[in-house]
Amino acid sequence: MDKEEVESKKYDEEEGETERYPTPKSSSIFDDTTRALTHSEAGECLHMLGKCESGLGYAYLCLNASNKGLTDIRVIPMFKYVLYVDVSGNRLTTEALRYLTSMKYLLMIRADRNHVTSGELEPMPYLQVLTLNKNKLTSTSGISHKQLECLELNHNNIEEVTLNPYDLENLKHFELRGNILTTTNGIFFPRLTRLFLAENQIEKLEGLEILVNLTTLHLRSNKLSNLTGFDSRCVKLNYLNLRNNEIIKLSELEKLSCLPALETLVILENPTVPDREAEEEVAYRHIVLAMLPNLTRIDKDPVLFDEKREAKEFRRQMLRDGTKFPDLDTNPPN
Hints:
Protein name: Leucine-rich repeat-containing protein 23
Keywords: Leucine-rich repeat, Repeat
Pfam families: LRR_9
Mean pLDDT: 89
GO cellular component, one term: cytoplasm
Number of domains: 1
InterPro entries: Leu-rich_rpt, LRR_dom_sf
Order of helices and strands: HHEEEHEEEEEEEEHEEHH
C-alpha cells in the first residue's frame, strides 16, 4: 500500500466511511430457538493470559463469545477472573445481558448486534467500556457506571439523550451515530473528549458550552443549516466534521471563529460547497481561511503556507473594501 492509499484509508476512517460493525454471516440457528453458552464452549472462548486481580497468579482475562447465536450467557460469570467480555453478534436480550453485572471487576462489555432494548444494567464499579451498537435501544436511560470512559450506542433508535452526568462523570468517548437525534442537548459531560453524532437528524446545536475538554466532534450527515451553538468555552475542539449537512451560506462558518483550537474542518457535500472548478476551489479556501486562519486542514487537503498568506491578504482587502463575509454569500470573489 503506497503513501497515498494509506492517507486515503486514514481519511476514510476519520470520516467514518469504513464499516466498523460488519454484519456476520447468517446463522443456521433459527431465531425462535434458545441457545445457551455451555461451560466447555465458554472455556474455548478464553484468551489473553494475564495476572489475576489478586496479583498472585495468572488467568485468562478475555472471553470472546461473539457470533454464536446465543440467547443465554449465564455461564460467563463462573469465569471470575475475566475482565473483558465480547458477546456481539448474538441474540441476547437485556435480561440475558444482565447476568454479566455480577462480575464485579469487569472492565469491558461489547454486546453489539444483539436484541438489547435497554442499556439499564446494575451499576458496575469498574466498567470502563460499554458498546451496544446495532441493537434495539430507544432510550439512553439507566446507563450508570461511575468509571465508564467509552460508551457506544451507534445505530439504534434513540431520539434524545437522557443520561445523568453524575452517573457517568468519567465519560470521555461517546458515540451515537445512526440514531434519530434532532439536537445535541443532553450531552452534559465535561470530561468528554470525542463525540460522534453522524447520521442523525440534528438541526440544533445545544449544550456544547459544557464540553470544555472536547477535541473531536463528528456531525456528518445531519440537518444543520446554521452553526449557532458553538461556544468559546470549547477551548480544545480541534477537529470538526460537518460534511453532508444543509449549510447554505458559507458565512455561517464565521461562527466557528470562537473555537481557538480548531485546526481541521470538513464541510464537503453541503449546498454551500458544490463541486467546483480549480479557480473556484482556490477562492472557496481563501474565504474559509480568511474566516478561520488557524485551520491546518480543510476537507481532504492540508492548508499550504501560500494559502495562508494569500488568505491573509484577502482578509486585508475585505477590510479595505468594507466587505463582510455575508456579502460573499451572494457575491463570491472571482
